[in-house]
Every structure is written in C-alpha cells, then in structure tokens.
Amino acid sequence: MADTITRPAEGPRSTHGTDTAERVPTVIADRVDIVYRVNGTGAGRGTATAALNRILRRKKTEKAAGVRRVHAVRNVSFTAYRGEAIGLIGTNGSGKSTLLKAVAGLLPVENGRIYTDGQPSLLGVNAALMSDLTGERNVFLGGLAMGMSRDQVRERYQEIVDFSGINEKGDFITLPMRTYSSGMAARLRFSIAAAKDHDVLLVDEALATGDRSFQKRSEARIRELRKHAGTVFLVSHNNKSIRDTCDRVLWLERGELRMDGPTADVLKEYEKFTGGKK
Ligand SMILES: Nc1ncnc2c1ncn2[C@@H]1O[C@H](COP(=O)(O)OP(=O)(O)OP(=O)(O)O)[C@@H](O)[C@H]1O
Fold it and tell me: Where are the stretches annotated Disordered (predicted)?
C-alpha cells in the first residue's frame, strides 16, 4: 500500500520538468520491487488434492507448492512533482501497468516504498463501471466512487457527457454500457475521471482507444489538470500522445527503469531501441 507524504514543503530536487523554486513532490518511489505470485503452476495443478496439499503444507517453499513468482518491477526509484505530466513507456510486459497499480495502492510492493500526496486515482481501461447500468447511472457511480457528492456529479453531468461525445451519434447515454463499443466505453471512463481535479491522476492507455478528435480533447484536459497543480501519469504505446502530453518520461524495460528524463531525449532512445518512430 502506498504511504502518504507528510512533509511536502521541501522535497528532493530533480533535473526534470518545470524548474520552480518550490517543487512539491507528489509521488516518491524508493527502490520498489513488485512480485506477482501465481498459484497452481506445479504438478497436479487445479485438482482438489493439489489445493488441499497447499492448505495443509503451508510452510513448504513457494516453489515446492507450485507457486511461480513473476518479478514485474525491479528496484525502481523516481520522484514526481506537482505540475508534471509523466509518460510511462516500455515494450509489452515491461511493468508499466503494474507500477501504476502500485502507485494507486492497488498492489503491495515486495521491497521499497511508495509515498504519495493524497490518494492517486487510477483511470484504467478496466476501471470498474457496471456494464448492465446505463451510461448515465455509471457517470453517477463513477463520480461517487471518486468521492464527489451527488450534487457535484449532477453539476458536472452534462459536461461529462458532452466531453465523452457519447451522445454525438444518438441518445446512447441512456443505454446500458454493454451496448457501447470498447472505444465509447473508454471515452466515458476517461470523461468521468477527468471531471475531477486529481492530486495524482494515473491514466492507463485510455487515450489510445478514442478517435483522433477525442484524443485531442483528452490531451487538452490533461494539460488543464496539470495546471490545477496535479500530477498526471500516462501509460501509452502511442509515442505521439506521449510527446504531445508529457514533459518527462520514465522508460521501463523488463521491470527496470532504463531511462528517466525529458520526453524528447527518452523517446529518441526508445525509438532507437524499438526500431523506428510511432
Ligand atoms: N496478475 C498477474 N499475475 C502474474 N503476472 C502478471 C500479472 N499481471 C502482470 N503480470 C506480469 O508482470 C509483467 C509486467 O506486466 P505489466 O502488465 O505491468 O506490463 P505492461 O508494461 O503494462 O505491458 P503492456 O504494454 O503489454 O500493457 C509481465 O511479465 C506480466 O506477465
């Protein structure tokens, strides 16, 4: 679980982002390791006997009990400051989503610590909305889940629906979310999350799912959120989105932080690594 930063006044200095006299750290990751444990990978996996064995012989080593460890994030350290938009890049399976979940406090760390200023909000493509409820009900559900009051959601409702563009092609907002395309659902999720000014907003790939005009609106909104003193993390495989939105980039590869620096510098190296611009 992430800890809360209690001494924001004088944070460690970094060479990245806007260089103002008083830089306030919002997220500090200090030598973070994250390990998944996957059960049932030994012989007889999935059988009732294997399950019973696991319960009875708890003290056995993880390996003997058929537990596989996946070391997803290795010794990662960084400090994020208020007003920064930070891109997280890396090839598939490099640990980006895992790191984001840990910053949100949704995954425990194996070693090291993560300190955060306030409660970060994770906006994932899988953010928990209810597919059987209408878009309208989900706007309320999502708003309440983010800590907004019913009145606050009511006040922002039209803005959220307009931003999402869900109703551009008909009255879709009153239909259950299961009838939405994956792009439409992602747009609504982003619009709900973006309605609130977050201290730390974590965005996982949401921009990649919308069409170009929605991407542009989202990028503008991210810039606005930054002005309101928040910190935005954006996981994306779309280097252009990263370039247009972020001033700093963390590049993860095989769970390790390979580079942390200004967007142009990191993307240049990353594009060399992956073999071309995207
Ligand atoms: N629930 C899980 N249980 C076990 N291993 C997992 C789990 N989720 C992710 N992993 C593993 O952790 C590593 C990092 O995965 P992660 O999803 O964080 O990568 P990513 O950089 O976000 O990838 P992508 O770009 O493909 O979305 C991978 O090796 C993956 O197989």
Answer: 1-23
Output the residue whose Cα is nearest ligand 1's atom 24: 92
Q: Which of 35, 39, 94, 107 to mutate to test the pocket of ligand 1 (most atoms within 8 A of CB)?
A: 94
**18-66: pLDDT as tens digits:** 444 578 999 999 999 999 998 766 655 667 777 777 677 665 666 666 7
User: Could you identify the residue written with the tokens 């995954």?
Assistant: 107
| 39: nearest Cα among 19, 61, 62, 15 | 62
ipTM above 0.85, yes or no: yes
Level-2 CATH architecture, domain 3-120+198-274: 3-Layer(aba) Sandwich (3.40)
pTM of the model: 0.78
Identify which of 70, 101, 233 to mutate to test ligand 1's pocket (most ligand atoms within 8 A of the CB). 70
Identify the CA nearest to 263 among candidates 245, 248, 252: 248
In degrees and rounded to multiples of 5, residue 234 shows phi and psi of -130, 115
Nearest to 248 by CA among 260, 236, 259, 235: 260
Neighbours of 22 (CB within 10 A): 10
Domain locations along the chain:
3-120+198-274
